[in-house]
Structures are given as C-alpha cells and as structure tokens.
C-alpha cells in the first residue's frame, strides 16, 4: 500500500513530534515544536541530559512564545525509551552527534519502531539524508531538515534524499512556519545544503586567520559585529554549537573535499583535546 505523506497543519496539530537527541540543538528543536500547544516527545539515552533539556525548555519556552507573538507553550515529555518517544508521532527529527556510526544504527531502530505514516527528518549538519537511507524501507519518507540555532536563528534547510515524496516536502514547507521556523529547499543534493555550506566557508576562514596567527577570536568576532551588525561572531557561535560538533562537521567536509586546510581541524582538535568544547563545558574560544 502506498502511503501519502501530504499533511496540513490541522492534520498534525494534535499529534506529537518525536525529537531524538537532547543536546544543544535537539532541545531547541523540541522547544520550537512545543510552541503551538502540542506535545513533544524527547528521547536521549542519558537521564541527566534529558533533565538539562527539560530545564532549558521550561525556562525559555514561555518567554519565546510571548516574544514571538503567537502560539502557546505545549508539553515536553522526556524519555529514555525510543519506542515511547516514537509513539503516534507524525514527525521524527533525529539530532544526534554528527557521526554515521551513531546515526545509521539509530535510523534502523527508528524505522523498525515508528508508525508507518511518520515523516522522518535528520538534523545532520553536513551529511545528505541519502547516506542514512540504507536501512529505511520507504525512502520517500526521509529528508534533511537542518535547523540553524533556534529561537535566535530560525531558517531551516530542507533537502531530499533523492527519493523523498514531493508531497512530504511541500507539506513541511507549509507547516514549519506555523512553529516559527522557516524552511528553504535545496534544489539538488549538496553536502551542507544551502546555509550550512556557506556558513562552513565563513567558519573555515575565520579559523584559518586565527590558526595562522593573523587575528584573535575576539578580533574576528568584533569585526563581524561592527560590519554586519551581528549579535555574535563566528567564534561565539561555534562555542554555542560545541567545538566537538564543529570538528566532526569539518572532518566530514574534509573526507569529501580533501584539499581543505588541515590547520582548521588541527586548531579545533587542540581545543577539543583539552576539553574546551564551548558553552557546554564552560570554556572554548571564550570562558563562560
């Protein structure tokens, strides 16, 4: 039987969203989907990470909804059971570390447990969803859905896995703005999609001028703030994402584009090796 993945907001308003992964982005994604009065089921293996995510959402969601001017705080349910997280979900968003050895077996589990009409989306920062489709029986239900850093930065990259149902993509293009995030569709497969590919180049050159001793992180950030009116520069933003995540992403790019400068990854590795991961560890390029 052919499954239709075409939806409207009214079709899904009373059904939960499953977010798989409760890290820096996972908890923010969960908050956005909890901003229309509905239910989000947030999964992680570690209870302490779920507790941190729940505390973040409880503290940030009411103010975000009030500032945005529409919606209402919904329910966030945290669980260490993947089956419970997937129960009755209309949408499953995976947001786990940027490593295929983690993502691939997880997607096999998701495919085995999720309902047959659930839409699948990976929040991968660089991998095309095609690379996660091997264990998914119906490849037309999977796509890339990469969030920037909501609620501050609310653009979303959408991209097909090469087989994604057209109705699914059109539905997400229409539905996601109801949650205060705004999708843009890549017209062909691209590592890094649209925004993340451009942002990767900015990060890479920013890291290069620091690695070469041309500038300090605060110099680069200061110039971005003055020239472009940014609230945070590239190094502050990398600290928010997590330097371990930034390094994983750069390693992925380097596998596909081996000509990329190694000094960028070497600099990141110095910080990660010293346990300086950014905001989440209390120190990265800056101290917190």
Automatic annotation (TrEMBL):
3-hydroxyacyl-CoA dehydrogenase C-terminal domain segment(s): 192-288
Q: Which residues form the 3-hydroxyacyl-CoA dehydrogenase NAD binding domain?
A: 17-183
Keywords from the named record: Oxidoreductase
Entry-linked InterPro entries: 3-OHacyl-CoA_DH, 3-OHacyl-CoA_DH_NAD-bd, 3HC_DH_C, 6-PGluconate_DH-like_C_sf, 6PGD_dom2, NAD(P)-bd_dom_sf
- Tell me one Pfam family matched here: 3HCDH_N
User: What are the site positions for Important for catalytic activity?
Assistant: 146
GO MF terms listed in the record are: NAD+ binding; oxidoreductase activity, acting on the CH-OH group of donors, NAD or NADP as acceptor
Q: In which pathway does it act?
A: Lipid metabolism; butanoate metabolism
Classification via Gene3D superfamilies: N-(1-d-carboxylethyl)-l-norvaline Dehydrogenase, domain 2 (1.10.1040.10), NAD(P)-binding Rossmann-like Domain (3.40.50.720)
In its UniProt entry, what is this protein called?
A: 3-hydroxyacyl-CoA dehydrogenase family protein
